[in-house]
Every structure is written in C-alpha cells, then in structure tokens.
Design goal:
The protein is an alpha+beta fold. It has 7 helices and 5 strands; from the N terminus they run E-H-E-E-H-H-H-H-H-E-E-H. It comes from Pelagihabitans pacificus.
Length: 143
C-alpha cells in the first residue's frame, strides 16, 4: 500500500457546505445551485444530514416550466416549484463516508454506484461533501 492509497478524503472534500433545510422552498434551492455553480446540496436538520438534493432532481420537474410559466413572469418563479417540496425530491437513503475514509475508497464508491456526491459525516454531524469534481481535480493534480 502506497502513501497515496491512505490519503483521507478530508484533504479534498468541500468543507464550506452550502445546505438547505427541509422547509426551504425550491426557489431557494434553484438560487443556491445557480449562485454557487454547484450540482448537489445536502439537506440538513440542525447539523445532521437528512437528504441530498441534486440539480438533476430539480431539472426533472422543471421540464413542465414552459407549460406553467406566465409569459409576463420575468423573475422565473414557477407554479411547478410550488407543487413540490424538498423532501419530495431529495434522495433519502444516502451512502455516507467519514473524513478518514481514503480518497481511493471514495473513488471506488463513486465509480461503482450512481452517486456523484457523498456526504462526509463524523459523529452524525455533516462536516463536508465530496463530489466527482473534487475527485477529478485531485487526480489532475497528480499529473
């Protein structure tokens, strides 16, 4: 086992977490996705993660936008967003990793499952998020 095989995911994870509460609206979620140019947002209750909302989850319902959008509606708010809640759209059964999980183990999980982001949890507290983008950036730094 090389030194590289034992590097913890805490070295590449995003620690400055953008999160949502289950009671937040989908307009807020859309705003956060656009503002921070991210594709996954953990949904929390206090410091505990209860789900993950992805941009894909939001886009899945947005296809109906055109049918419901008022042509005079410049701010982009849609009736569709009022028809759903974050808990209805978020993924609930999440695979979690600890800050001590190795980057290699995280890569194996992301490669073998259909996940593109994993919450990093320590003592039930959300401490970070690691995405396929974080992993690719790490791999590019190796070259």
């Amino acid at each position: 086992m090389s030194v590289r095989d034992s590097i913890p995911v805490s070295t590449i994870m995003t620690k400055n977490i953008i999160s949502l509460n289950a009671t937040d609206g989908l307009e807020k979620a859309e705003h956060l996705f656009k503002k921070h140019r991210i594709r996954h947002i953990p949904v929390v209750k206090g410091e505990k993660i209860i789900g993950m909302l992805s941009l894909t989850d939001l886009l899945r319902i947005s296809f109906a936008d055109g049918a419901y959008r008022n042509e005079d509606d410049d701010d982009g708010d849609t009736i569709v967003y009022n028809m759903f809640t974050i808990p209805q759209l978020m993924a609930r059964s999440l695979e979690r990793v600890s800050p001590h999980t190795t980057i290699k183990e995280v890569a194996e999980i992301l490669a073998s499952k259909e996940y593109h982001a994993l919450p990093v949890v320590e003592d039930e507290k959300l401490v970070g998020i690691v995405t396929t983008t974080d992993l690719i950036k790490y791999l590019l730094d190796q070259y």
